[in-house]
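chain below, 153 aa
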Amino acid sequence: MSWMDTIEEALIAANDAVAERGWLMKLDPRLRAAFDTEYQAALAAFDADEIALAVEHIGRAHILGSHFCTTHVRAHWLMLRIGWRRRDAYELWIQALRVTGSLGTRLMAPFFGTTGNPGMAEYGAGARFPLSAELAPLIDLQEFTRWRLPSLR
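prediction:
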């Protein structure tokens, strides 16, 4: 297991732990499965040096996971690695900012909603795109409106 895998697993465990306490909304298991499928496909394509395919899959994963800190950070981290592989300084800069900014995802998501934005540097942060007919029902699995602020007691 690589150090990146260890960090990803720690982020997932931390998100789930605070979601169990009611401090964060828990990712619907079906939405998580869809995210994981796209993310794993992106990783496999990246490892096979099929970068265009990796970009396609990580963009879909980004859309599915953009409301949650761990999935959002993971998507942008792989985009940063894609930028490194391409030797694209602009992509590296934007993804470094977005990895850092993704840490506040849960606080910002209610203001943006699901944007349909694939997340690569060529797409402006917060730019809105229509959800594909394939991804929209997956996003609808998450009951965002039932999330409430945690009690301070």
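The chain has one domain: 28-142. The longest helix spans residues 29-47.
thats it, cya
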